[in-house]
Amino acid sequence: MAQVVEELQAASAQAHSDERELLQLLATPHLRAMLMVHDTVAQKSFDPVLPPLPDNIDEDFEEESVKIVRLVKSKEPLGATIRRDEHTGAVVVARIMRGGAADRSGLVHVGDELREVNGVAVLHKRPDEISQILAQAQGSITLKIIPATQEGDRFKESKVFMRALFHYDPREDRAIPCQEAGLPFQRGQVLEVVSQDDPTWWQATRVGDTNLRAGLIPSKQFQERRLSHRRAAGTLPSPPSLRKPPYDHPCDSETCDHDGHLKGHYVAGLRRSFRLGCRERPAGLQDGKAPAGCEALELPTYEEVARYQPQPGERPRLAVLIGSLGARLQELKQKVVAENPQHFSVAVPHTTRPRRGQEKEGVEYHFVSRQAFEADLQHNRFLEHGEYKDHLYGTSLGAVRAVVAKNKVCVVDVEPEALKQLRTSEFRPYVIFVKPVVQEKRKTPPLSPAWEDTSGPLDEEQQDMAASAAYVEQHYGHLVDAVLVREDLQGACLQLRALLERLGTDAQWVPVSWVR
User: CATH topology for 261-298+311-440+457-506?
Assistant: First the structure.
């Protein structure tokens, strides 16, 4: 700075206005102080001071290249795992964790042989003993290393996002090479996989975490093998059987539901609930095969996802409600749609029963012949169907498409088995699991003022509701985008409406195949 000031002062007589202004600025006290601090800091050297090479190098090292590495480690793990070479017995670096202390230093590489940690020889120690030494060390750590003969690639660039379809706690995983390096996550969290170099253990970070250091997670292939083994051994629950558990069944007769009017307004498709007959499926349909979507689910591990931002005027996503016993989906769906029929709608169902009174085609129902209905069944054109009093009822995929074509959010409530048929790039369903609040029975208070309110056991109905919710979560939770806990109709309606409104504006993580 001083040199610049001198040059400007020497030429001040012939200086232009810009140069004179710069000279005045440089003369101000605060700017001079800032520039002096900058010059002082710039002249300092911040390179780490490495310890001198020991004079008493072991004889084993005389013909080998030895590297002394000093790392500064805080409370975080060192960010490297080790293993013992099966052929030579040497302790070598197995992997470098992305973003960890070892990775940031750039001084430790995969394949390096570790000889000492803080002056302690590790040649005859077990890898777990060495890991314990590294984990307990704080501050400066000095490593004596024999570099690998060939340094592999630092990292192969990987930008893959995966939604976790299971819960994972590395502390409960005996197979992980280093529990401290493991990354715990919950089902539904999105992970950024930064390295797939190891086919068994990937490196990943949780999206949204402030900690950018990667952790180990089981790879998709390895986790699938483990789940397959556990299922074969009988320690993992089997896929849902054809004998379906009780889900949300609103009624047991065709007309018990609602006449289609809410707040004085008629809304097409709200009049009936045909799921009443799904448990009495007509014999001989689909050649005796299991209904679509009831086949064994794949082993839930990870699903590759991408960030999706809805655009104005774009075809809306399908809103799908699934529910356990007591969720009363039909009532919830009716209220939300009736309050805003310009934005939300439902699919008009099909039936084989004759038209009655003032009913109109395509309003209360699509009235079709039994032959046409069964032909559509054969071609898998129905999302759900059932039978009641010798008449077939069902929601067709075409009826869903008709609502979407009007640029409305189609709200459907289905049994969970139907999700497999809907999860396509065409419908891009947003799945909401509705479950009721299960409240424990309260004991009747006696007359004594000293009585304390204590909870009693669940009655049979509450137990069934809890068991139904647990079943849905266990077998279909990995397909759910949001969970809505229903305590009362009005509160649940407000929650559902908020979810559906954000669906058209907020960015969401969706299967990568839906946006490619």
Answer: Rossmann fold (3.40.50)
